[in-house]
Amino acid sequence: MSAVVVSVTGEDQVLPFTVEALDVRGRLVRIGPMLDAILHRHAYPRAVARLLGEAVALTALLGAALKIDGQFQLQARTTGAVELLVVDYDLPENIRAYARYDEAAVAAAPEASPAELLGHGHLGLTIEQGIQNARYQGIVALSGQGLEEAAHQYFTQSEQIPTRVRLAVGQVIEGGKDVWRAGGIVVQFLPSSPEKRRHADLHPGDAPAGADIMTQNDDDDWLEARALVETVEDHELVDPLLTSEELLYRLFHERGVRVFESQSLVDRCRCSRERIVGMIERFSEDERRHMIADDGAITVTCEFCSTHYHVAPAEVGVG
């Protein structure tokens, strides 16, 4: 299992907040040591690292809202240079992430944006609440947009909640070396009054194809909250010298912002020797024999944390 990286300076945390005067709730995530460990473990090219960093930040923002004992997963499968993007969030704090990409395609476009790397495909957001509970999955088609826009489409189509998301990933110099950092903020319009709830409703989806839809999420409070979030600069989201509380105060001090207990995030893979052995045992005996390498062992490497497991054939019933 990968080493556990825990922040001791207030980083690697999701901070929930509310701005009651604007009827919005939100979360702010700031990720430092945890993300740096994940990205350096695989030595991803800069463009791929940036995209995976955005995916980790988005997964943390969305998953932290779930008050369940379960798992949340973000997965993108595409025809772009990054073919597969997976972030697993084992609630309440464990995160692991992995990207599979075409090395030649990435090398040919080293400055490609996250949207360009994704290309076309689909983004899946899955909630698993255990064997006894239902599995929920939302799907968003990827057609050249980035993760921010895909998240907005998800909330419009699936949740029908006016939502604004901002994501940022970058490198800062700490201790004489470049360190990856990511940040993100999400605000959602959740009015309490019946009148405001009517204005927040989105169209029911039964209009004829091609018809112009007039959405009613133009409440003044929501427009103000959304406009404030859109002023957030990338450097503010990744600046290690700017605390989450200070950033929220910058944004909402005129309206008043209240924060709640933060949720820590930990770089921890769910792989283990027991899981690996169990996986190998599901193969036929003939297949297990073909897995034996020249050194006489079966070797498995976790795609997420790069841990190497060496399993003796006798452990999986191969004499």
How far apart the termini lie comes to 27 Å
In the predicted model, the low-confidence regions spanning at least 5 consecutive residues are 1-9, 199-216
Structural class of the secondary elements? Answer: alpha+beta
CATH architecture of the largest domain: 3-Layer(bab) Sandwich
Number of contiguous helices: 11
Average pLDDT, rounded to a whole number, is 88
In terms of DSSP E residues, the strand content is 25-35%
Q: What is the CATH C-level name of the largest domain?
A: Alpha Beta
Q: Roughly what percent helix?
A: 25-40%
The ordered H/E elements are EEHHEEEHHEEHEEHHHHEEEHHEE
Tell me what you see in this structure.
- The protein is α+β, with helices and mostly antiparallel strands.
- It has two domains: 13-267, Hsp33 domain (3-Layer(bab) Sandwich), CATH 3.55.30.10; 273-316, Alpha-Beta Complex (CBS domain Like), CATH 3.90.1280.10.
- 31% of the residues lie in helices and 30% in strands.
- The strands form three sheets. Strands 1, 2, 8, 9, 10 and 11 form a six-stranded antiparallel sheet that branches. Strands 7-6-3-4-5-12 form a six-stranded mixed sheet.
- The model is unreliable at 1-9 and 199-216 (pLDDT under 50).
